[in-house]
């Protein structure tokens, strides 16, 4: 039986048992592929993500802004004490989210090990969901995000599995300013700023 790949917000329970789902994420020329086997027990993984995805998608659909190159994000590491900072992996979560059991689609902006670091946000990114049929065929759905659409942020220790990552800030539209700033891991809203230097 094939995998229904039409609506990105289909309930996870609608996916037939035994369906193989492969996820391919392309960002900065690097492609990553995750293949998981769907079963009823894993349906709980994406329920919260599906709700969050709908909220972020609403923001994405209402933006009249054009994509913009060179948008920066100045990140302040809130874990620093007495000159010692915990490393944190900074993740960006596009508003275009597929409803899959593999967790949220995120862009790895990099790791911050100092008090502050400047990142450049990508102007666009793609995520591919490949539904594999039992007969060897496959259906591919491509999700495209641009920085004229909503984006949320999150951070986690590099040792923590990325599949557990989720956004911790409100969504913002990067292309509406030359630069942004945020404190991690405690910040809940990125604020517009001048472009920083990477």
Short description:
This protein is mainly beta and 198 residues long. Helices cover 8% and strands 37% of the residues. It has one helix spanning 47-61, and strands at 20-27, 30-37, 72-77, 88-94, 107-112, 116-120, 124-132, 138-146, 151-156, 179-184, 191-193.
Q: Count the domains.
A: 1
Spell the H/E element sequence: EEHEEEEEEEEE
Number of helices, where a helix is a run of at least 4 consecutive DSSP H or I residues: 1
Could you tell me the strand content as a percent range?
35-45%
Main sheet: strand order: 2-1-7-8
Helix amount: under 10%
Query: What is the terminal separation in angstroms?
Result: 49 Å
Based on secondary structure, the structural category is mainly beta
Poorly predicted ranges: 1-60
Cα-atom radius of gyration: 17 Å
Whole-number mean pLDDT: 76
Shape: globular
Please give a handful of descriptors for the protein shown:
single chain; 198 residues; mainly beta; 1 helix; 11 strands; globular
Can you describe what's shown?
This protein is mostly beta strands and 198 residues long. The protein has 1 helix and 11 strands. It has one domain (12-193). Helix content is 8%, strand content 37%. The strands form 3 sheets. It has a 4-stranded antiparallel β-sheet, with no helix packed on it. A 4-stranded mixed β-sheet has the order 6-3-10-11, with no helix packed on it. The chain has a 3-stranded antiparallel β-sheet with strand order 5-4-9, with no helix packed on it. It is globular.
Ordered list of secondary-structure elements with their pairings:
Layout: E1 20-27, E2 30-37, H1 47-61, E3 72-77, E4 88-94, E5 107-112, E6 116-120, E7 124-132, E8 138-146, E9 151-156, E10 179-184, E11 191-193
Parallel strand pairs: 3-10
Antiparallel strand pairs: 1-2, 1-7, 3-6, 4-5, 4-9, 7-8, 10-11
